[in-house]
């Protein structure tokens, strides 16, 4: 019963084996003729096998034999069928007019031309590998993607995978169409096989990884991501994929824990600031923000602590400080903000330092509506005088503006600023006092 | 009906009429009353060629959007699905057909594929067991849709991705077919020029198609002198930059879809009480004022609007001078036109205000500064502070990607270290799954490592004079006004082709991707054109993979030059901008 592989290939590619086509169920004459021919050819070919043996499975695992049974009918649409041929349903017939000029002797190029015009014609007659490839080449030379795809579907069904891949490897245009087509119909398995065959390892890896987008369940998604680790990504991407997995793994732990804490209602931070959304599948920086918001003081040992995240994912200082600042400012935890920028040198002196520049600190604080006293403190730390003056003016840090003008001995600017402060305010008084002070040697 | 299509050098109403005829013929095939079920994406493009009235004349009584489940009730004989050939739409159609109430009156189903029947889709319908339910399954080859007197688009959103990422040439095939239709209506185009791999393919397809049609000689006197086919990947730079023309900015900020823009209603006088809906405006040359200002640099729009305002209010003041009955009568006869002008002016003043709010913002200025630095070749080889800030502040990912790609293109690829840095920042901030998008951008050549350690951009920039320091936004003398300094590469290629010819820039053409070529389509002697002295040539320029409004503006500028010598009609696979472009390249779940 079992054929050798060589036989199988020959079986599918041999031009001796003539198939039949019933394109019109009403045309009894052609039906008869065809079926007779088919039966005869079968007899020639499969001498001692019984009928059931025709219902066989090709090397790609798809049942392919049923269409060779006498009595089952074919239409163009069947010709495209990806599944074993079904019994012919009468309502699936095409409008009769389309059959009028039907002929069985079209060359591959005639066939392709007809397909291109959207007319009916069967591809099943092309049995030999040579004919099939000629069909493909005709289609490719027409550049009509619709027809190329139709021929590819036919080849995909009637050729074993290895031959299909081998032949397409030397036909790049058709190959690209097949890849596009497989992506479109979501035949991930064959697509991956193809990439493997072509040794296109990075595409193979990315294509596999892409599937995670369709997995909703976090546990399953995590497990799937695990299977991506070690796939042949570029060195850079490998690290990112590993991080992606680790991140989701963390998020699942944090989410379970925090959901529990929140519903228990015992933890102040969750009571005061109920979570707006789950942390699952959020980007790394968002996760860090979350952890700076809800888990800032935790020891490094816990999965949810910011420091732990920073270390695990090698988050650069700048990124870390920015995120922590935004989170703590949102909570109006000015003390934490202060600590973020305070460094002690070896003599024990404290110094303010911001890897992101204090102008950025000021912007972020302002965005989180920090009070003027706080803003002022950081505006003062901005080194560049122009930037400092601009920020101070923008955020109405009057004292900083006034002091800076004084230091610059810029009388004109101070005078101009006077109009921007409230009448009779302490600031106005301060400006007036300066302007009338005899001790300052104004530059203008 | 669509008079503005016939204002240009080539009467595009001829094309519009041809596609309308085809539509009527199809509708008449399905005799009796009908309902159309629309693939929503198609309603926009169809709106440009047919109003509801045309459909009504052909017994279309109801219209629905294609949705799952059951079809809405409609007492009609025919149900016609107007759809793009897409698998997911077939599933919905099948659902509709299968849930059809068997007890109700029998209705005939038909399906019209736009622009192309698809064997793959029909197969899907068959698998779902409904293929036989359709009496007519036809295609409507709406390949090129006339948008304006000088503008045609296929509105195929996936074309760039298919051509340059997937290597699927189907949209090129449609482009070639569209060009064959144009030639059938406007005569054979005697000369074809092209640059790029896809351009080469389309030219090949055209030549082949022509050979197959040899039976019928085209006896129409040619309207077009040249065809220029340009690959989008020859000029990846231009769409990434922010367009600075009026129309370009409307598109950048609000998006123009099928010549309509949806604008926030606040600045417009409400039509009725509580009218909080977005204001939808049609934008094309049918509106006189819009035709005048759309291609100007935005900085030149304000003064035109205020001049117009003065003219219109002066015109209204005229009523005081109208003393005699004759004068009053004349004034009144002008009123409708004046009122239309006033309405148009009010609308565009509002739009200009909306845009100005954006363009005067600090962030817009910063972004523009960075773009202009990149395009003029400053600091393209290191990590840019502004981009870093944008990522840190989580600005929209598309904005970030546009900038990073721009930097990459202006540096012929980024240094590996710089690229890795950006990649890492993007993935950590926006999510690791964007690895897939970054890979697509790399494959399309938009974001890639520099190979060979050589930056070709300066050579290209200098030879093609892409950066002009002295740009006049008010009264431009060069196409660089559309980006306030940067002259779009694609349009520069067109300009140089027309004068002095591409031979002068062979070196740069070799650096740019893909072959450049020239083909002639011989004409019978009777159809050969003898150009009158001073008569301009007409060039059809086809952008394969999309074109921006700023590029269109630059080409219109060239058409209007007194001694330009060439007028352009523009065709494309899609009207697009940098954001819609990048978005089409992003990976989404299946």
Can you offer a commentary on this structure?
The complex is a heterodimer of chains A (444) and B (590). Helices cover 57% and strands 1% of the residues of chain A. Chain A is built from 23 helices and 2 strands. In chain A, a hairpin with a 5-residue loop joins strand 1 (342-344) and strand 2. Chain B has 590 residues and is an alpha/beta fold. Helices cover 45% and strands 13% of the residues of chain B. In chain B, the strands form 3 sheets. In chain B, strands 6-7-15-14-9-8-13 form a 7-stranded mixed sheet, sandwiched between helices. A 5-stranded parallel sheet of chain B has the order 2-1-3-4-5, with helices on both faces. A 3-stranded antiparallel sheet of chain B has the order 10-11-12. Chain B is globular, with a radius of gyration of 26 Å. Classes of the chains: A mainly alpha (444), B alpha/beta (590). Chains A and B meet through helix 6, helix 8, helix 10, helix 12 and helix 16 of A and helix 5, strand 5, helix 7, helix 8 and helix 16 of B.
């Amino acid at each position: 019963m079992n054929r050798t592989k060589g036989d199988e290939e020959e079986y599918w590619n041999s031009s001796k084996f003539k198939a039949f086509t019933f394109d019109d169920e009403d045309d009894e004459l052609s039906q008869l003729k065809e079926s007779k021919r088919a039966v005869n050819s079968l007899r020639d070919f499969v001498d001692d096998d019984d009928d059931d043996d025709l219902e066989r499975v090709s090397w790609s695992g798809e049942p392919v034999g049923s269409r060779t049974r006498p009595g089952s009918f074919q239409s163009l649409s069947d010709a495209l069928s990806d599944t074993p041929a079904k019994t012919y349903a009468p309502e699936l017939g095409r409008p009769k007019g389309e059959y009028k000029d039907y002929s069985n002797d079209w060359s591959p190029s005639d066939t392709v031309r007809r397909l291109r015009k959207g007319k009916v014609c069967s591809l099943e007659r092309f049995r030999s590998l040579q004919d099939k490839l000629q069909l493909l080449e005709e289609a490719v030379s027409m550049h009509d993607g619709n027809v190329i795809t139709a021929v590819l579907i036919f080849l995909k069904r009637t050729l074993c995978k290895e031959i299909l891949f081998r032949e397409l490897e030397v036909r790049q245009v058709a190959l690209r169409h097949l890849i596009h087509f497989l992506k479109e119909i979501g035949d991930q398995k064959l697509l991956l096989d193809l990439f493997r065959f072509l040794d296109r390892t990075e595409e193979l890896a990315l294509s596999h990884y892409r599937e995670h987008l369709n997995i909703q369940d976090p546990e399953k998604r995590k497990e799937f991501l695990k299977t991506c680790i070690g796939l042949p990504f570029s060195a850079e991407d490998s690290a990112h994929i590993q991080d992606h997995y680790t991140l989701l793994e963390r998020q699942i732990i944090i989410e379970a824990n925090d959901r529990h804490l929140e519903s228990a209602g015992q933890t102040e931070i969750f009571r005061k600031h109920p979570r707006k959304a789950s942390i699952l599948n959020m980007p790394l920086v968002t996760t860090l923000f979350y952890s700076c918001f809800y888990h800032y003081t935790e020891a490094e040992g816990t999965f949810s602590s910011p420091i732990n995240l920073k270390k695990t994912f090698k988050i650069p200082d700048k990124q870390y400080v920015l995120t922590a600042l935004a989170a703590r400012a949102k909570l109006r935890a000015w003390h934490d903000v202060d600590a973020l920028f305070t460094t002690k040198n070896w003599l024990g002196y404290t110094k303010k330092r911001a890897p992101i520049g204090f102008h950025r600190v000021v912007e972020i604080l302002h965005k989180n509506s920090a009070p003027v006293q706080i803003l002022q403190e950081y505006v003062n730390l901005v080194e560049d005088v122009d930037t400092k003056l601009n920020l101070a003016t923008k955020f109405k840090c009057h004292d900083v503006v006034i002091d800076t003008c004084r230091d610059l001995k810029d009388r004109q600017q101070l005078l101009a600023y006077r109009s921007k402060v409230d009448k009779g305010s302490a600031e106005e008084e301060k400006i007036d006092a300066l302007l009338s002070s005899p001790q300052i040697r104004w530059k203008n | 009906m669509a008079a503005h299509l016939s204002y240009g050098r080539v009467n595009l109403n001829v094309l519009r009429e041809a596609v309308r005829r085809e539509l009527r013929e199809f509708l008449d095939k399905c005799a009796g009353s009908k309902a159309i079920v629309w693939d929503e994406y198609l309603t926009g493009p169809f709106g440009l060629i047919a109003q509801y009235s045309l459909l009504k004349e052909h017994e279309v009584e109801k219209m629905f959007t294609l949705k799952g489940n059951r079809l809405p009730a409609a007492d009609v004989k025919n149900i016609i699905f107007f759809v793009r050939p897409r698998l997911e739409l077939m599933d919905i159609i099948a659902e509709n057909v299968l849930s059809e109430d068997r007890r109700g009156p029998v209705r005939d189903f038909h399906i019209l594929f736009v622009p192309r029947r698809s064997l793959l889709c029909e197969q899907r319908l068959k698998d779902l067991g409904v293929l036989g339910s359709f009496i007519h399954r036809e295609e409507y080859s709406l390949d090129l849709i006339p948008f304006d007197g000088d503008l045609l688009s296929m509105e195929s959103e996936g074309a760039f991705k298919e051509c340059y990422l997937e290597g699927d040439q189907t949209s090129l095939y449609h482009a070639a077919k569209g060009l064959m239709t144009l030639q059938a209506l406007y005569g054979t185009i005697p000369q074809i020029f092209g640059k790029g791999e896809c351009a080469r393919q389309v030219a090949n397809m055209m030549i082949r198609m022509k050979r197959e049609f040899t039976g019928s000689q085209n006896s129409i006197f040619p309207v077009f002198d040249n065809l220029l086919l340009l690959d989008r990947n020859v000029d990846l730079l231009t769409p990434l930059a922010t367009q600075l023309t009026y129309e370009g900015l409307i598109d950048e900020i609000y998006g123009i879809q099928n010549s309509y823009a949806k604008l926030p209603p606040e600045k417009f006088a409400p039509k009725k009480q509580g009218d909080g809906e977005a204001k939808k405006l049609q934008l094309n040359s049918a509106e006189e004022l819009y035709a005048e200002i759309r291609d100007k640099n935005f900085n030149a729009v304000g003064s035109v609007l205020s001049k117009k305002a003065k003219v219109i209010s002066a015109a209204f003041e005229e009523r005081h001078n109208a003393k005699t009955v004759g004068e009053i009568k004349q004034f009144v006869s002008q009123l409708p036109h004046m009122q239309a002008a006033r309405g148009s002016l009010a609308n565009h003043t509002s739009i200009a205000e909306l845009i100005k709010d954006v363009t005067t913002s600090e962030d817009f200025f910063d972004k523009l500064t960075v773009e202009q630095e990149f395009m003029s070749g400053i600091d393209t080889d290191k990590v840019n502070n502004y981009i870093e800030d944008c990522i840190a502040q989580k600005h929209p990912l598309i904005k970030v990607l546009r900038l990073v790609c721009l930097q990459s293109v202006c540096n012929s690829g980024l240094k590996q270290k710089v690229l890795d840095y950006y990649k890492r920042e993007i993935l950590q901030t926006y999510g690791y799954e964007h690895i897939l998008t970054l890979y697509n951008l790399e494959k399309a050549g938009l974001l890639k490592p520099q190979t060979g350690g050589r930056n070709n951009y300066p050579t290209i920039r200098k030879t093609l004079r892409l950066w002009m320091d002295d740009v006049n936004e008010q009264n431009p003398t060069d196409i660089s006004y559309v980006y306030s300094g940067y002259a779009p590469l694609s349009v520069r290629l067109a300009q140089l082709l027309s004068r002095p010819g591409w031979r002068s820039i062979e070196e740069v053409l070799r650096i740019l991707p893909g072959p450049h070529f020239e083909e002639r389509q011989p004409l019978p002697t009777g159809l050969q054109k003898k150009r009158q002295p001073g008569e301009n040539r007409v060039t059809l320029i086809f952008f394969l993979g999309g074109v921006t409004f700023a590029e269109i503006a630059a080409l219109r500028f060239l058409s209007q030059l007194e001694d330009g010598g060439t007028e352009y009609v523009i065709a494309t696979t899609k009207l697009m901008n940098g954001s819609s472009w990048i978005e089409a390249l992003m990976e989404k779940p299946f």
